[in-house]
């Protein structure tokens, strides 16, 4: 698995520092609110597990499973909700938790779908933002780090379902997917 990585982009320690910084920002901003963190699976599984423990205010969690990349490194353009939330959202301040904002198609679609359910407020938190590849208009409220246009894996992020268990984030060697 390690042989497939071209270079490490964020070490385990750097990721922990990023998560802790976002956790502090969220803790401050959501004082006295009714925070519901919605993790967009599968990619955000590791980030979500760490981030929720970096938030010091009371919160609830829930999960959606959304998929659009399949086995490729480019979005299929079709965002499929594989598993939806099944609770009313009116009483919650919703925070969508994503691993990466790339073309923006997943988050622009999700935001629209969830906004229509009338939560008290809605914000987006993404660990990584790849602004150069944006195709849909999305503005995240919390960003861990902006990254260059390269396909990254680890810390929840996959290529064809693999590499999610790497504790760091690295750039995948292009020969793996070309
Ligand atoms: O901004 P976009 O171009 O839409 O890309 C970002 C989305 O793509 C990935 O999900 P994927 O469809 O690979 O499912 P996964 O979370 O199970 O890996 C990633 O986890 C984000 O949800
Ligand atoms: O760079 C990426 N890596 C893994 N999954 C992704 N989904 C969108 N962009 C990426
Ligand atoms: Mg993926």
From TrEMBL:
It is found in: Cytoplasm. Its EC number is 2.4.2.8. The keyword tRNA processing does not apply. It catalyses: GMP + diphosphate = guanine + 5-phospho-alpha-D-ribose 1-diphosphate; IMP + diphosphate = hypoxanthine + 5-phospho-alpha-D-ribose 1-diphosphate. Residues 8-159 form the Phosphoribosyltransferase domain. It comes from the Bacteria. GO terms for cellular component: cytosol. Its cofactor is Mg(2+). Pathway: Purine metabolism; IMP biosynthesis via salvage pathway; IMP from hypoxanthine: step 1/1; Purine metabolism; GMP biosynthesis via salvage pathway; GMP from guanine: step 1/1. Purine salvage pathway enzyme that catalyzes the transfer of the ribosyl-5-phosphate group from 5-phospho-alpha-D-ribose 1-diphosphate (PRPP) to the N9 position of the 6-oxopurines hypoxanthine and guanine to form the corresponding ribonucleotides IMP (inosine 5'-monophosphate) and GMP (guanosine 5'-monophosphate), with the release of PPi. This is Hypoxanthine phosphoribosyltransferase. It comes from Acutalibacter muris. The lineage of its organism: Bacteria, Bacillati, Bacillota, Clostridia, Eubacteriales. The gene is hpt.
């Amino acid at each position: 698995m390690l042989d497939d990585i071209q270079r490490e982009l964020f070490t385990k320690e750097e990721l922990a520092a990023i998560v802790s910084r976002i956790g502090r920002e969220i803790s401050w901003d959501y004082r006295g609110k009714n925070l519901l963190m919605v993790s967009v699976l599968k990619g955000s599984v590791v980030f979500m597990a760490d981030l929720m423990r970096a938030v010091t205010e009371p919160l609830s969690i829930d999960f959606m499973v959304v998929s659009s990349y399949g086995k490729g490194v480019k979005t299929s353009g079709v965002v499929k909700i594989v598993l939806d939330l099944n609770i009313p959202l009116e009483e919650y301040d919703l925070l969508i938790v994503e691993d990466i904002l790339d073309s923006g198609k997943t988050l622009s679609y999700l935001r629209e779908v969830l906004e229509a359910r009338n939560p008290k407020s809605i914000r987006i938190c993404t660990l990584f933002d790849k602004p150069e590849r944006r195709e849909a208009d999305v503005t995240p409220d919390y960003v861990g780090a902006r990254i260059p246009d390269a396909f990254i894996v680890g810390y929840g992020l996959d290529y064809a379902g693999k590499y999610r268990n790497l504790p760091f984030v690295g750039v995948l060697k292009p020969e793996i997917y070309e």
